[in-house]
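Recap from last week: sequence in, structure out.
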Amino acid sequence: MSQTTSTDPADISVSRTRRELCIRWQDGHESVYPFDLLRKECPCALCNDLRSNARASGGPSLAVLSGPVLKVGEVQVNEVSPIGRYAISFVWSDGHNSGIYAFEYLRALCPCPACRGGRAAASR
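Predicted structure tokens:
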């Protein structure tokens, strides 16, 4: 991860065959997000409440909201839409569609080893 991180995407691509979203940021960093991670970390209020309640009760991190029960490896994106110049939204294969994924949130969620390591060091 570079010293100055950008939350402005230079390029966004979706691969349904690899089941991932790829964002190349203005600072040159590239983030690759598996669909399973993005669906699990949906930032909408309902998903946040479900995750909080599940953590408090020791249950799974996210219950299925509606539609078919999807296992890890089955989540698919049906549609991706820009939200202004600050975010994107998804229509997921389980029917869920209320999450607005701000670019700032996505950059903070980057699953690459350098970014994960930086978050772990910052939380100590």
